[in-house]
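Hey, I was hoping to borrow your eyes for a little while. I've dropped the whole record in just underneath, so have a look:

——
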Amino acid sequence: MNEIVLILGQTPVTLRDLLMAGAGVALILLIALVWLVLRANQARALEAAAAAERQREMDDKVAAMNQLQAELTARMQTMAEIFGGRQSDLVRAMSDRMDAMRASLGQGLQQQSEKQSENLGKLNERLAVIDSAQKNLADLTGEVLALKDILANKQSRGAFGQGRMEAIVRDGLPPSAYEFQVTLSNGKRPDCAIRLPGDERLLVVDAKFPLEAFQLLEAAKGDDLRLATAERQVRNDINKHIGDIVERYLIPGETQDMAFLFIPSESLYATIADRFEDVIQKAHRAKIIIVSPSLLMMAIQVMQAIVRDARMREQAGVLQKEVGLLLEDVRRLQERTAKLDDHFRLAQKDVGDIATSSDKIGKRGQRIEALEFEETRAAIPVVRAAE
């Protein structure tokens, strides 16, 4: 053990010294390993505690939501019972009111029928003029349709996107909520104008996008020079079109402060979003939203929900108004019933007085029939003596 193994500088190193140094290093490594294990266990314990705390908070929130749902269910059941109890009364009152309206409507229809007969007589006099003008009208209709086809052929951009845009709008909104080719106060005619409930301003949708530039971009694949030229042309055309929409269709007080630029192809929209980010940002700054068919469909669905909610509120207002009218009718019925009750009491008193008078008249008639004239006979000689 005390044998010198090596010499470091002038210091001899024995085998015992090497073993002791190795043991010290091993002890230090063991202590470091234990410290790392304890540190890892502590971290896992903290993580487990945090997870348990998060789970407890989640359980509390779920319990609160369940309690809120139970309370809401109870309230809905109470409201259902209240409405169910009043439904029969409302139905009966509405039935009475409908009967009265039916009678009034019958009289009105009879009068209207008489007026219609008179109007038909006058109308027959004008049928000859209408028949003579029908041929001219058919010719004019054909000319208008031909003119429409000519205009459609000239407007290639509208012909490409107008059909898809109109189909999406027609499928999602009622006819009263939109109008195609409406004329604005400045004389411009956007492709579509949407009316939102509670706002008189129109939301403009424009479907005339620069198709020619995209065709050049599609044809320029593989040629870097032509591709750069086509991209520059697309960027210039879209920016110019954005400026035209802002200038023509964003009218303060008449239209919304934003408008939709409809791209009728998902692939074209993806190309713009992927390769022309600067154009998208410029459109957002100008309050022009570029939409594809799917995005326009989502926007129309949101508008459809808004229109449906507005109609439900209108129907609730109509129902509330009818209930108010019904309550007013009930109040008038109560007043008239009270007046009728007063009349009945007065009539009953009059009938009693008439019965008393009838009894007196009957008794006097009986006395007359029995010839009860004693007092009269006793008074007759006195009268003659006086004479």
Notes: The first helix runs from residue 15 to 154. The CA atoms of residues 171 and 300 lie 9 Å apart. The longest strand covers residues 255-262. Confidence is low (pLDDT under 50) at residues 144-154, 382-387.
